[in-house]
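Supplementary Text 2. Reproducibility record for the structural model of the 435-residue chain.

All settings were left at their defaults, and a single model was retained for analysis rather than an ensemble. We include the record here because the model underlies the residue-level annotations in Supplementary Table 4.
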Amino acid sequence: MTGPRRPSPVRLLLGLSGWFALLTTLLPPADPARVAVTGAFLLVCPGAAVLLASPPRIRAATDWPDRLATAAFAVALSLAIATVTAVALFLAHAFTLGRALGALALLTTLLVLLPGGRPTAPGGGRPEPDGPPAARTGDAGRHRRLHPRAVAVAGSGVLLLTAACGGPSAAPGFAVAQPRAEAAGPSGADQPAAPGPWRQVFRDDFNGTALNGADWVTCYDWNRAGCTNAGNHEEQWYQPGQVSLAGGSLVLDAERRDTAGSDGKTYPWTSGMVSTGRDTWTGTPRHTFTYGYFAAAIRLPAAPEGFFPAFWLIPAATRGTPPELDVAEFPGTDGFVDMNVHWRTPSGGDDRVGHRYQPPGGFGGGTRVFAMDWEPDAVTWYVDGVQQFRVSDASLVPNVAMELVLNLAVGYPDSPPSSVDSAQLRADWVSVWQH
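Retained model, structure tokens:
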């Protein structure tokens, strides 16, 4: 009798390949080593690990045509596994490259650790099946046991998909509220839904005839006769003429109209936004906030497709994200709201965790209150006074002064239908409380 077989160098390298790929995410995004290692892992390694864990008849390759076919099969398996993982994370609104690589690295390692097929009998022949002859005749197919490796591979797949589909709410430090009855209408106007005590430090009920310039500007900090958000490849150029007050509400108007931007480009739409930030890059912000309870009563566009309303906060010092806090985002829909916290990764990238809340009937046709409680050790989101999501991992919580933004972007994630030429976002009030 011999002792346990040591893993071959190929198995060891394959088992560690995913963790090497995950480690390269610390490098800059365009670094050749990061691209090469990550690409090689995604193309080959998960599929190769599945083949190693499969019965010998599946992975046998005796000549070059067979070897090429096996290699192609490994690549196809790898791409399929990577695609399933990415789609599951995306549908859970939790996709990042790091999470996808981590899940695939874990699966690859588990598969490599499995024994690589049944041993051969002395002399190279197939071993005799276990059990007396009677157990191998008649209805043997109905009583055949599942191969342990098949069970392990299936279990690994279920583990992977469960972890992926579980999204942020399945991990420590995140919590999604259990379904509860919502408030009958907009609430939280006078006091925050979160525990206090509180004092109101900012409020605008938009009861005047023009926007209060002491509180608001109509562009981002990089304003030069207007602005846009090039990072999202949006289709609008923001202009102050698209911001107005009417009927006790702030009105942001988007119109399909070719508009020349100061960046030399022509945009097919013009739209409106407000911010408590600066008039110009070197200006002084109107208001900045570090921690607090932020709330707004918002009515979404009647035809939401192609529009991206958002109520969010961006850093005042760096004038850009991350970090970022999204109180409420509506990417081309009024059927759900996205709530996110973004942070900067060690490699300088943008990572995030969030929750997508989809109430029965969506948010169309009425005014709803969206709010967020930003504390030093946690962030909690509310809709109409009801808690929906909480991040309690203090390492993910921003601790810098931020500017408040309310905007109506166009063309993200897709362009509006050709039959739609305008849209309107209204806010009845915006308020900020602090302890």
